[in-house]
Amino acid sequence: MQQLLQPINAPDKTLNKLKILGLNTLWDLLLHVPLRYEDLTKVYKVCEASAGMQVQVEGEVVSCDIMQTRTPQLHVKISDSNGIIILVFFHFYPSYKTQYQIGKRIRAFGEIKLDFHGNKTIIHPKIQSVSTTTELPQSFTPIYSTTNGLTQNTLHKLIKPVLSNSIIPEILAPDILKQYNLIPLDYAVNILHHLTAEQFNQGMHKVALKRLKFDELLVQQLILRNAYVHKHQGESVILKPRATHTKALLNDLAFSLTKAQTRVLAEIYIDIAKPTQMNRLLQGDVGSGKTIVATLAMLVAVENGYQACIVAPTEILAEQHYIKTKNLLQKLGLNVVWLSGSLKASEKQEVYTKIKENRAQIVIGTHAVLQKKVEFYNLALVVIDEQHRFGVEQRLVLQSKGKNPHQLMMSATPIPRTLAMSYYADLDLSIIDELPPGRTPIKTLLVNNKRRHEVLEFIKSHNQQVYWVCPLIDESDTLELESAVNTFNELTKSLAPIKIGLIHGRLKTVEKTNIMHLFQQGEIQVLVATTVIEVGVDVPNASIMVIEHSERMGLSQLHQLRGRVGRGNIESQCILLYQNPLGEIAKQRLKAIFENADGYKIAHEDLLIRGPGEILGSRQSGLPLLRFANLEEDLDLLNNAKTVAIDLLEHNPELAKFYTKLWYSSKEHFISV
Ligand code: ADP
Ligand code: MG
Q1: Which atom of ligand 1 is nearest to the CA of 257?
Q2: Measuring from each residue's beta carbon to the nearest atom of ligand 1, which residues come in under 6 Å?
Q3: Is 465 in a helix, a strand, or coil?
Q4: Ligand number, closest to the Cα atom of 433
């Protein structure tokens, strides 16, 4: 079996081409299955071949002439005893007369087309010279994906001996094969490279491909499950709810938790009461109420005499957490501290000391919490908001600030279940799948920018608070700022005397905070913003969201932005201004956001529009993307692969390890966290 890990044996020039295709080992060659097949196993009579069919015909050359059309064409007529077909070539060698000598017997393969006169033709067919006794191939001719300078023939010659000389390992026991309706791997690989007409008619190529899909998903699950097990090895403190603070907080809340919040909280409680580390991803649509869940989780740490912290990717977001949490927890006599890069050095020092001496039980902040100088007394729980905005290394740094602190990661970018199961299988997943009651649905309007004045009239006649978002332009801060400033000036003029504010990424933290406060208190009615407000901001009174150049924004970004309104009890509007002409993808996105309110449905649409690679962003670079399986169609396979992976790791970890290496030997860097 080890033999399949050996490098391919070929001249350097070929090896370099193979490398382009990602082919390094003999195993890689086996997995390089054909893109499609050509059926050269039978010969059609010319009279049976009709337009549109891909067929092979055989006959004798009856004429061979150059047609002096605009560009010269070579027409070769061949005849079987049933009819005549014209082979058309736009490129041909000067030696064509000998190549297609009258009376010569040839086979031609290609798609039948009719010319102006209704004659059957094949344009640039595949040609083979034959005699009446030349045998037909037994199996379909595989067509492999390739690269410039690497012929089908070369690939064929490389793959063939590996197929016949190798022992292909079987990782699945016979009962598993039976249970999941799978064929042996050896058989599957052979079918795919060597498909007979009979197998094709029975659909065996699909059955064979299913096996490869399964194994691909299996290996992915093995990798992730391994990471999962690894992460749960560290010993962590046991945190059990003590009902002291928790009860007080729940009594004090203006609302009661939704069923979904209660459920995910119970999942978290079970995890943190174990002596092993929690690694949980909490997903919930925008506004589903993740923060209070995190706060309650942190309270358990505090009740047990430990510290907890929450980090958020932006100042605005972190500060909102701070203000809310402090309001809730100070009453309980707890010490909540704030830590951000914008604090004065002396203030920071004071906070550091508090944290170190356990005079701060809950720490809330930005990346500043990651600083080396921040030393905790006994950190037991870490909450990471908007986890996708933090890198692997940053998460590791946080980890190191306690003794395997439990980790709760939060994400407001819902991703489809299949993707989550597939790519986040190293984490446990909690999903808040309902919004708090009493929210009025947001009305979404698509408005051509030409009708911008109507939007302004609408704002004037409705005494409501408005976010007006300007998009990122060509990844350029400067242009983004410019467009926001222009919009600010425009609105100040045309909406006077309405109070307009402007917030963007270049402002100092205090300035941002001030503006957010003014907006929160209703002193500013229209807030012009760059996309800095994308995540997490919570101003329940704001009920109109205007998004400029919505055609430039991604689906999840649009959804996030829209989620900033619809939080109070006034009916909210999201006005998407767009500028023609719209590209195809922009059209699809706007249609999707217009038709769907549910983040998961939108995520699903996004998956269809963009594919998994782009949705997962940096995460995906750590994990090989799927080649065979398709998460849209193969959910059942994924579920089964997961079950098998867990079992295999437990009962045959060595085999699991070997098999993973086989699949990804040349991509060692995958998945570390
Ligand atoms: P997100 O999940 O987007 O982070 P938040 O935690 O900011 O959402 O919650 C959005 C708003 O909903 C907040 O104002 C919060 O106080 C409120 N909220 C949370 N849970 C409930 C609930 N069960 N009932 C009513 N309002 C709630
Ligand atoms: Mg949030």
Answers
A1: 23
A2: 255, 257-258, 261, 284, 286-292, 412, 436, 536, 538, 540, 567
A3: strand
A4: 1
In whole angstroms, give the CA distance from residue 446 to residue 591.
9
User: What is the C-alpha to C-alpha distance for residues 432 and 217, in angstroms, rounded to an integer?
Assistant: 26
Helix (H/G/I), strand (E/B), else coil: 370: helix
Amino acid identity for residue 265 in this structure: L
In whole angstroms, give the CA distance from residue 647 to residue 632.
25
Three-state secondary structure call for residue 217: helix
Pocket test for ligand 1, best of 255, 520, 560 (most atoms within 8 A of CB): 255
Question: How far is residue 258's CA from residue 381's CA, in Å, rounded to a whole number?
Answer: 23
Q: Which helix (H) or strand (E) holds 432?
A: strand 428-432
The Cα–Cα gap between 345 and 305 comes to 29
Question: Do 392 and 242 meet the contact criterion of CB atoms below 8 Å apart?
Answer: no
pLDDT digits (tens, 9 = 90+) for 354-409: 999 999 999 999 999 999 999 999 999 999 998 777 777 788 888 899 999 999 99
CB atoms within 10 A of CB 45: 14
Q: Which residues contact 123 (CB under 8 A, 6 or more apart)?
A: 88, 89, 90, 110, 111, 113
35-91 residue pLDDT tens: 999 999 999 999 998 899 999 999 999 999 988 878 888 999 999 988 999 999 988
Q: Is the dihedral of CA 433, 438, 444, 449 positive or negative?
A: negative
